Amino acid sequence: GLGCCALVLLLLLGGSGSPGTSPRPRGPWPEEQGAVPEGAPWGRVRYEAVKEHLGAVGALSRRYWQYLACKVWQEGCEEEKQREDGEASPIPSWGFPLVGQDYLEILSAWYCSFGKCCETGDCRIINNITGLEADLSGQLHGQHLAKAVVLRAVQGFLQSPQPQKALVLSFHGWSGTGKNFVARMVATHLYRDGLKSDCVRVFVSLLHFPHHNYVDSYKAQLQRQISETLQGCRQPLLIFDEAEKLHSSLLDAIKPFMAQHDSEGQPHQQRSIFLFLSNLGGNTINEVALDFWRAGRAREEIPLELLEQRLRLELQEAAENSYAHSHLLRENLIDFVVPFLPLEFQHVKLCARDAFLARGLPYTEATLDKVAQMMVFVPKEEKLFSAQGCKSVPQRINYFLP
Ligand SMILES: *[C@@H]1O[C@H](CO)[C@@H](O)[C@H](O)[C@H]1NC(C)=O
């Protein structure tokens, strides 16, 4: 029980060369006796409890706690940072040389593993829906459908008390329309460390599974990596880029992880999110967008239902090009198909503006026009859609620097 955990903690720190006082045995922590009202910040209470205990051991400086609080609760980090900036080597100056960073890592990982040390129950998970919405609104251009679907899907999934299956989204559209951008945004706003989080895993078909001859070993490797990620995190995010190039047997290998959790012996609170990014259906989406434009209607009027229906039809027919999304569709594993519309001149200009702003560089309306004019627009007659979307726009602004 917790008594034993406290002991481990004391041993961990007591055995680390703390000078002076020996640990004084104590009873179980009062905070752990059910005295905490429902909904109280458990993490904080536990933090105070541990703090008191370890303070009594006399082994810890205020700074140590500051560091731990920063690590575990993301609190007091500024103070910690200032110190780091001000001193050449912060850790040796702590006075407890053996209580190093490794111990802190172990301690905070262990501490987080039994308790709700963060609001989400896992400090790696932040689930900042407000931030996601703000970024989708401010930085994703021309994608009213993708924005709405992603936000609704992710928010609904994270709020549902006991999801029966993983959330599976399939992003479709031409390259440069923002599929990767949105996947990254989701990672950034759901996880403290974004794409680098151990809860997040990105697979790029041609990078990770380039040779069809090795499909069997890829399959074993993929299954191992997915189960590791699923076991190490209760809200894992798995991103499959270039999904149209994923061998169908690899897709089959992923399927069991998306289905019912119970059969896999996963804990019930597990919330896995799968994103598949592909350019399949891109042409269909573009045809619909072009039809709307020719009919003099705004792209914002394009209804999701229309695109979703056309996309699902097309994906089923795409089975012969070894793309196996259709299996997923047949088994209803894909919850949402997310269409990314082709980008127009005005959207490319907005991407250019963001690129200038991101680098803190000045720009004029004329410069933005020039950057956008570098892109190829199709179809031949209308020259309406950027063939590469906003791809490489951040690099292209280099030509127009003062
Ligand atoms: C959520 O993200 C927004 C924008 O990135 C940020 O301003 C806000 O502080 C974040 N909220 C939390 C609780 O982290």
From TrEMBL:
Tell me if Translocase is a UniProt keyword of this record. no
According to its UniProt record, which protein family does this protein belong to? Belongs to the ClpA/ClpB family. Torsin subfamily.
Q: Where is this region: Disordered?
A: 17-37
Organism of origin: Thryothorus ludovicianus
In its UniProt record, a GO molecular function of this protein is:
ATP hydrolysis activity
Q: Give the AAA+ ATPase domain ranges.
A: 165-308
Q: Which residues form the signal peptide?
A: 1-17
Name of the featured protein: TOR3A protein
Which PANTHER family does the annotation name?
Answer: TORSIN, TORSIN-3A
Q: Which SMART domains match?
A: AAA
Q: Which InterPro entries match?
A: AAA+_ATPase (IPR003593), P-loop_NTPase (IPR027417), TOR1A_C (IPR049337), Torsin (IPR010448)
Arranged from A to Z, the UniProt key words for this protein are: Signal
Give an example GO cellular component term for this record.
nuclear envelope
